[in-house]
């Protein structure tokens, strides 16, 4: 029986043994590696995602306790977002050169170091150490996001969205556990004689370090490197079966592709591939819609008399919509197609904007609107990410994916920053109306794709 290591060193033989009518992902040995990869990624998402959840709920509190300033509490959130945005492309380039295993392990390890620095900042009351720690801790968010792409590297084309969605779903556990680590963290802090809030970051760093160890030790063979070897073997067989002229033309194209640089070639691919560009647009705008509306929802609810418990339940419902149903979304995307699923996500966004925009006096409408906001994001992220992988050649995939995640975080940060002034000017209903307008570019792009068929 072949082992994963056998597969990683003998892709040509495996590809030659399988029937030519079957995609190489249908090989039983590749399928076994794919199942193992998804399991390992999911486990890493759970333990590492706890740290991401801590950052969302306790990061600002730690910053305020260190700096004794609400301004620094906001700066801490900005620093984490900046850290996530800054490493999207570098992590992708590491994956391109050394594989997903190295890239994702390194990302979680850097985030764990950031958590350790935050513990140090809590002890020393050092603001510079706090900012650096927040920047590095934000790398965990980028790593968490890029993990979904690794699940699609070896997936069969008709199961790509479902594989990706399982890893997205695993984030649910961390997002639920992380915000509730304040009390267990306080016990840890007491045992280690640390400031109370530092204990949660001790646990978060441990989880992120464990994620790095899981990926480094168990994600073998590397899914991206293995998929590249299989596809190179497949291309070689096609050239051998074709004419010499076709083979020479392919060789020239491959050399040109490699010589231009992965990132540059990936950006050019986004400009010239309508389906990849559509997926890029859908993912980036969906994240912006979600961030802008979600940022101001607690503020709007508080202004209309909702207590912290009701706000917390509403946010939990939003997170439920974002993550809990992603396997269903993945199944749907593989069944009806990635493009229709993204378009369905736009319809969900429009309903969400209507309910939230009109429901500022109704807790029920706000809860329903926020749940649908999360669900619309899930439709776009899962189907859009799968479509991006499908529409991008394997050698260019990491660079295009990293560029997408960087753009997603940067544009969403701008949207979240503008959400406050917009709500002050036109109200929460107006903010939702502006968010609904962001659906229109995606629908217009979809109409162009359909017309071009």
Quickly give the structural class. Answer: mainly alpha
Low-confidence stretches: 1-6, 8-20, 244-250, 252-261
CATH class of the largest domain: Mainly Alpha
Q: Which shape, going by the Cα principal axes? A: globular
**CATH level-four homologous superfamily name of the largest domain:** MFS general substrate transporter like domains
Structural domains: how many: 2
DSSP strand count:
0
CATH architecture of the largest domain: Up-down Bundle
Question: What is the radius of gyration?
Answer: 22 Å
If helices are DSSP runs of H or I spanning 4 or more residues, what is the number of helices?
21
Order of helices and strands: HHHHHHHHHHHHHHHHHHHHH
Helix content: over 70%
Ends distance = 45 Å
Provide the β-strand percentage band.
under 5%
Quote the CATH topology of the largest domain: Growth Hormone, Chain: A
Mean pLDDT: 84
Sheet having the most strands: none
Description:
This protein is mainly α and 453 residues long. It folds into two domains: 4-227, Up-down Bundle (Growth Hormone, Chain: A); 262-452, Up-down Bundle (Growth Hormone, Chain: A), CATH 1.20.1250.20. 85% of the residues lie in helices and 0% in strands. It contains 21 helices and no strands. The protein has helices at 4-9, 11-17, 28-67, 70-86, 88-98, 100-124, 127-137, 139-150, 160-177, 182-192, 198-218, 223-241, 244-259, 262-272, 274-303, 308-324, 326-336, 338-358, 363-390, 397-437, 439-452. The protein starts with a helix and ends with a helix. 53% of the residues are buried. Residues 1-6, 8-20, 244-250 and 252-261 have low confidence and may be disordered.
């Amino acid at each position: 029986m072949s082992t994963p290591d056998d597969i990683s060193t003998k892709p040509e033989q495996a590809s030659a043994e399988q029937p030519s009518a079957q995609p190489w992902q249908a090989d039983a040995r590749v399928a076994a590696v794919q199942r193992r990869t998804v399991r390992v990624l999911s486990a890493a998402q759970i333990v590492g995602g706890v740290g991401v959840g801590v950052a969302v709920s306790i990061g600002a509190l730690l910053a305020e306790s260190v700096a004794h300033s609400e301004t620094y509490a906001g700066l801490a959130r900005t620093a984490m977002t900046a850290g996530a945005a800054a490493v999207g492309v570098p992590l992708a380039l590491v994956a391109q050169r050394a594989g997903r295993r190295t890239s994702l392990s390194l990302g979680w390890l850097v985030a764990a170091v950031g958590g350790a620095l935050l513990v140090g900042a809590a002890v020393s009351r050092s603001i510079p150490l706090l900012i650096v720690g927040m920047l590095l801790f934000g790398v965990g968010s980028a790593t968490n996001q890029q993990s979904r792409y690794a699940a699609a590297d070896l997936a069969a084309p008709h199961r790509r969205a479902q594989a990706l969605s399982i890893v997205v779903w695993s984030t649910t556990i961390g997002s639920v556990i992380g915000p509730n680590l304040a009390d267990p963290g306080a016990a840890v802090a007491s045992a280690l004689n640390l400031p109370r809030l530092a204990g949660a970051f001790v646990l978060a760093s441990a989880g992120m370090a464990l994620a790095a160890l899981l990926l480094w030790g168990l994600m073998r063979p590397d899914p991206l490197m293995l998929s590249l070897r299989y596809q190179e073997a497949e291309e070689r067989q096609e050239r051998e079966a074709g004419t010499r002229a076709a083979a020479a033309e392919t060789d020239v194209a491959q050399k040109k592709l490699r010589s231009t640089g992965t990132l540059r070639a990936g950006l050019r691919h986004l400009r010239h591939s309508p389906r990849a560009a559509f997926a890029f647009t859908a993912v980036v705008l969906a994240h912006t819609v979600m961030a802008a509306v979600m940022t101001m929802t607690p503020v709007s609810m508080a202004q209309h008399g909702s207590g912290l418990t009701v706000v917390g339940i509403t946010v939990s419902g939003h997170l439920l919509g974002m993550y809990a149903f992603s396997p269903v979304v993945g199944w749907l995307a593989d069944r009806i197609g990635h493009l229709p699923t993204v378009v369905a996500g736009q319809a969900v966004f429009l309903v969400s904007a209507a309910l939230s925009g009109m429901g500022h006096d109704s807790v029920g409408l706000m809860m329903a609107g926020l749940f649908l906001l999360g669900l619309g994001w899930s439709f776009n992220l899962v189907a859009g990410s799968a479509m991006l992988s499908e529409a991008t050649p394997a050698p260019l995939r990491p660079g295009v994916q990293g560029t997408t995640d960087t753009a997603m975080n940067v544009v969403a940060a701008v949207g979240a920053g503008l959400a406050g002034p917009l709500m002050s000017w036109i109200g929460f209903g107006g903010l939702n109306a502006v968010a609904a307008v962001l659906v229109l570019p995606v629908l217009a792009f979809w109409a162009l794709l359909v017309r071009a068929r």
